[in-house]
Specification:
With 299 residues, this protein is of the alpha+beta class. The protein has two domains: 112 residues, Probable inorganic polyphosphate/atp-NAD kinase, domain 1 (Rossmann fold, 3-Layer(aba) Sandwich); 157 residues, Sandwich (Tumour Suppressor Smad4), CATH 2.60.200. It is 29% helix and 36% strand. The protein contains nine helices and 13 strands. Strands 1, 2, 3, 4, 5, 6, 7, 8, 9, 10, 11, 12 and 13 form a 13-stranded mixed sheet that branches. α1 links the parallel β1 and β2. α1 packs parallel to α5. The relative contact order is 0.16. About 2% of the residues have low confidence.
Length: 299
């Protein structure tokens, strides 16, 4: 595919099956005849050095959405967004892989990325950081925290369970949400989400119209309606992408999203960010070059 080799980024703390899979992925990439260099995903200094030295390499992330988020942040910080990105999904949710049409089987994905061409996808830039798939504020952040204790045992089922648990006690926030300067919601809010991809939490269709490469962000805002029952109804509808029909939910699309009001925590690609009083998210069109199938799966 014209790259000098592969830079394989993986979690060094992974054990058992995941560690074995990373070894097999390494072997499959090497079987193409290209040089393969491995680097740990949790060592920013080593990763930054490897990225700066990656002259034409394809950066292959063996991990989940959080790993892609971390690597994208380092690509952005080191000025190496010119590098091609490959993904071998080893996470729990793997929502970016779903949105990009990648095989969820890691060995199938490793084989496929050696033949695919890089195709541009958008990034979301906000609060001095970058987001690849989605950021959602409020209930989503608390649900992610609650789900973390069950992910190892329950897999993707941990996400809806975490949402149910968080929904029983989380209080609403007073937020104002504007998209491209137009206010789409102001008042009590339990969730405000900005999506580049279609799903979060291992398949919940929070942004059912989103595309990774259309230059737009999709926005979902859920007001505080009908208390815990309303939150449960919202969660159930969101799994199938039908929450936009609920009267207390607002949706919009645009290039810039500003969220102001009370401090609220965020969940960005599975990473929980601390409560912040102001959030701004801007689409950076075509910033990442991801190896993926020729046709977007949602078109």
């Amino acid at each position: 595919m014209g790259s000098a080799g592969y830079l394989l980024v993986a979690n060094p703390a992974a054990g058992g099956t995941e560690e074995e899979l990373v070894g097999v992925v390494h072997a499959r990439l090497a079987a193409t005849g290209a040089a393969v260099t491995a680097v740990a995903s949790d060592d920013d200094a080593a990763l930054d050095t490897a990225l700066r030295d990656a002259d034409g390499d394809c950066v292959v992330v063996a991990g989940g959405d959080g790993s892609v988020h971390r690597v994208a942040a380092r690509l952005h910080a080191t000025g190496r967004l010119d590098l091609e990105l490959g993904l071998v999904p080893l996470g729990t949710g793997n929502d970016l892989a779903r949105g990009a049409g990648l095989p969820l089987d890691p060995l199938d994905a490793a084989a496929a990325l050696t033949t695919w061409r890089p195709r541009p996808i958008d990034l979301l830039a906000g609060n001095g950081r970058v987001v690849v798939n989605a950021v959602h504020l409020g209930l989503g952040a608390h649900a992610a925290r609650a789900a973390s204790r069950w992910k190892a045992r329950l897999g993707t089922l941990a996400y809806p369970l975490g949402a149910v648990v968080a929904g029983t006690w989380v209080r609403p926030w007073q937020l104002r949400v504007a998209v491209d300067g137009r206010v789409v919601h102001e008042g009590t809010t339990v969730l405000a989400g900005v999506g580049n991809g279609r799903t979060i939490g291992g398949g919940t269709r929070m942004f059912p119209r989103a595309a990774l490469d259309d230059g737009l962000a999709d926005v979902v805002v859920a007001a505080s309606a009908y208390g815990r029952v309303g939150r449960a109804v919202f969660g159930h509808a969101a799994r199938a992408g039908r929450h936009g029909r609920l009267p207390w939910v607002r949706t919009a699309r645009g290039r810039h999203v500003a969220i102001e009001g009370e401090p609220v925590a965020g969940n960005a690609d599975g990473e929980v960010w601390a409560a912040t009083a102001g959030w701004e998210v801007t689409v950076v069109p075509g910033a990442l070059r991801l190896r993926r199938p020729p046709q977007h799966p949602w078109r």
